[in-house]
């Protein structure tokens, strides 16, 4: 990774002490243009971490490098780091338009330029009709769109999103999640998004970092985190899962077909289009002969890895793609499994959990 | 309305409360109605009365202005930060509410008196407090600043600090975040604090009379006329002052309600 790239963020040995909360020796690296999701339980210090990066808390030590320049001594207004809170934090005494315009108004931009940019961003976020309204008259989803527009209008080098979808109802949350993905595709803003929701993390993150007790315990691509949790905490918090991304195909006998790059699996869902799918390792059955029961999915693959994981054995089978299954030591011996052996793998369509992209 | 006479307890509570309201309203009503409008008008035309009332308004206005400039920043710091001795400062701010106001006047004399070093220092630049207009201002300031500082502090406390933080990330300096976000949002509270403080200053007698008997503020004038000439002579001035304060207070409640405060 090129840490000197225009908008790459590197946090080194950061120490923050707020009395009842502290971070120590905290490290983090986000590539330019990356959508980086920090996943962690409530109370893991995610907000304090983001606020520290934005310069809103004094740090006791360490470095915060943006494009290689240390920002620790730079006041927040000069960092060019945008911030969006879970509960929007729109200025209640200003209209939606004035909220969005806030950053440009501070810079003393001409009124015509401001009006043009506000209209542009309102258009981008689908809130053009709400500009004259007071923030409190907006729904949660609309307020969060306004807050995003307000953060984006100043073209931040880095965008920090603090649980931006957590206060919204599931439907609104999903639609705004797609919006975030689209905005990131269109604008390419380097983004750090913190959440406690693993589906959100998978759907949005180029990489996911799992935070626990003020420390990143694992960083990697979504599949990696869920397939190979590095610690017991990660495994328990995210739950070990097989994660796939694919396109949903036509309905057939009540089943949808999820088209993965090299495989098509039957699933149960109302969704269409591009989605993510997760499958718990313990929901996969391994057998010597193909199983044709109520399990709708049965494939033949080759074992590429067998790893002990506590009381269980994790067996990775490549079809491709790779599936990780969990079996007991006893079935390992009974089936006589070893790396390189071909084996049948089955799971029910209903065991595959489909969620939005 | 429906629940007003819902049970015996309500009826008894109402009766008890009514006594207190009566106790409050009756004397005020009697004072105001005892003098004819013509007499009130005549009283208002008296130079001594008019000057005393204007002097009172002006002195209280100046005291409120000083408290605004010095007290709003203090209120902000009390609301937003933690510093050693904060409890002590907060206690001090509340103190004038409980200290007898004549005692407050004595205390001010101990510092701003003509033989005290600070009093002498001010006198050197032409500001004398004892028996002089500035004395009225500091007496009013002393006894009524609690109202403004506390109202402003509560106003700032009600503003989520994260609103300021967002403003900072959007390019606002600490000053800009204050003037564009915190101050406008706390303004309703500050405004009601200002009006309350001003009204409290108008009615101050005890502290003022110790420092400054002459020139007279309206409450001192009422006292003097009562002492020297009796009830009939003091009453029209009292009625005038009550009416004026009542008008100001009603105006305050109305504007405050319109703005959604109080």
Compact description:
The complex is a heterodimer of chains A (357) and B (262). Chain A is of the alpha+beta class and 357 residues long. Chain A has helices at 46-54, 96-106, 111-125, 140-152, 170-187, 198-204, 222-227, 232-238, 329-335, and strands at residues 9-17, 22-30, 35-39, 61-66, 69-70, 81-84, 158-162, 190-195, 207-212, 215-220, 242-252, 255-260, 263-267, 273-279, 285-287, 297-309, 312-318, 322-328, 342-347, 353-356.
Description:
The complex is a heterodimer of chains A (357) and B (262). Helices cover 26% and strands 36% of the residues of chain A. By secondary structure, chain A is α+β, with helices and mostly antiparallel strands. Chain A folds into 2 domains: 9-240, 3-Layer(aba) Sandwich (Rossmann fold), CATH 3.40.50; 243-356, OB fold (Dihydrolipoamide Acetyltransferase, E2P), CATH 2.40.50.100. Chain A has a 6-stranded mixed sheet with strand order 6-7-8-3-9-10, sandwiched between helices. In chain A, strands 13-12-11-14-20 form a 5-stranded antiparallel sheet. In chain A, strand 1 and strand 2 form a beta hairpin. Chain A starts with 8 loop residues before the first strand and ends with a strand. The model of chain A has no long low-confidence stretch (mean pLDDT 87). Chain B is mostly helical and 262 residues long. Chain B has 2 domains: 1-34; 36-258, MetI-like fold (Orthogonal Bundle). In chain B, helix 3 (47-80) runs antiparallel to helix 9 (174-202) and helix 8 runs antiparallel to helix 9 (174-202). Chain B starts with 7 loop residues before the first helix and ends with a helix. The model of chain B has no long low-confidence stretch (mean pLDDT 92).
């Amino acid at each position: 990774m090129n840490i000197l790239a225009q908008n790459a963020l590197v946090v080194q040995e950061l120490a923050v002490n707020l009395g009842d909360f502290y971070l120590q020796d905290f490290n983090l690296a986000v590539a330019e243009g990356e959508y980086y999701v920090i996943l962690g339980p409530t109370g893991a210090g995610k907000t304090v971490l983001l606020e520290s990066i934005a310069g809103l808390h004094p740090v006791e030590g360490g470095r915060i490098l943006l494009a290689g320049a240390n920002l620790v001594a730079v006041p927040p207004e000069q960092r060019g780091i945008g911030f969006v809170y879970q509960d929007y934090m729109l200025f209640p005494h200003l209209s939606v338009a004035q909220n969005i315009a806030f950053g440009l108004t501070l810079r003393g931009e001409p009124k015509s330029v401001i009006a043009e940019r506000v209209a542009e961003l309102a258009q981008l976020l689908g809130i053009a009709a709400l500009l004259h309204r007071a923030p409190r008259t907006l729904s949660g989803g609309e307020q969060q769109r306004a807050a995003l527009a307000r953060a984006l209008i100043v073209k931040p080098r880095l965008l920090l999103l603090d649980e931006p979808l957590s206060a919204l109802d599931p439907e609104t949350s999903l639609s705004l999640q797609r919006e975030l993905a689209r905005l990131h595709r269109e604008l390419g803003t380097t983004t750090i998004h913190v959440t406690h929701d693993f589906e959100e993390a998978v759907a949005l993150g180029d990489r996911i970092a799992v935070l626990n007790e003020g420390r990143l315990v694992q960083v990697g691509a979504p599949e990696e985190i869920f397939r190979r949790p590095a610690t017991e905490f990660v495994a328990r918090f995210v739950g070990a899962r097989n994660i796939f991304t694919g396109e949903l195909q036509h309905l057939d006998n009540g089943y949808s077909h999820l088209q993965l790059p090299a495989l098509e699996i039957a699933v149960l869902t109302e969704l269409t289009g591009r989605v993510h799918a997760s499958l718990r390792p313990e929901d996969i059955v391994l057998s010597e002969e193909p199983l044709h029961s109520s399990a709708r999915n049965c494939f033949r693959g080759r074992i590429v890895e067998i790893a002990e994981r506590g009381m269980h054995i994790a067996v990775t089978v490549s079809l491709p793609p790779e599936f990780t299954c969990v079996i007991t030591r006893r079935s390992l011996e009974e089936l006589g499994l070893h790396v390189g052996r071909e084996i049948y793998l089955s799971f029910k369509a209903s065991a595959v959990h489909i969620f939005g992209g | 309305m429906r629940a007003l006479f819902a049970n015996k307890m309500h009826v008894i509570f109402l009766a008890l409360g009514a006594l207190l309201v009566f106790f409050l309203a009756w004397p005020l009503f009697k004072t105001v109605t005892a003098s004819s409008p013509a007499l009130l008008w005549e009283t208002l035309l008296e130079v001594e009365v008019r000057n005393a009332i204007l002097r009172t308004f002006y002195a209280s206005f100046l005291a409120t202005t000083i408290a605004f400039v010095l007290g709003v920043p203090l209120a902000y710091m009390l609301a937003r930060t933690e510093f050693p001795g904060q409890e002590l400062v907060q206690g001090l701010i509340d103190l004038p509410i409980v200290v007898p106001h004549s005692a407050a006047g004595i205390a001010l004399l101990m510092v701003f008196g003509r033989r005290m070093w600070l009093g002498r220092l001010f006198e050197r630049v032409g500001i004398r407090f004892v028996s002089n207009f500035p004395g009225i201002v500091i007496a009013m300031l002393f006894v009524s600043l609690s109202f403004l500082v506390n109202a402003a502090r509560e106003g700032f406390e009600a503003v989520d600090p994260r609103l300021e933080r967002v403003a900072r990330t959007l390019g606002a300096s600490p000053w800009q975040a204050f003037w564009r976000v915190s101050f406008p949002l706390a303004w309703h509270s500050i405004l009601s604090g200002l009006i309350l403080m001003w009204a409290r200053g108008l009615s101050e007698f005890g502290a003022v009379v110790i420092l400054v008997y002459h020139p007279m503020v309206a409450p001192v004038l009422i006292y003097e006329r009562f002492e020297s000439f009796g009830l009939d002579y003091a009453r029209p001035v009292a009625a005038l002052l009550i009416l004026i304060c009542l008008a100001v207070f009603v105006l305050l409640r109305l504007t405050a309600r319109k703005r959604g405060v109080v």
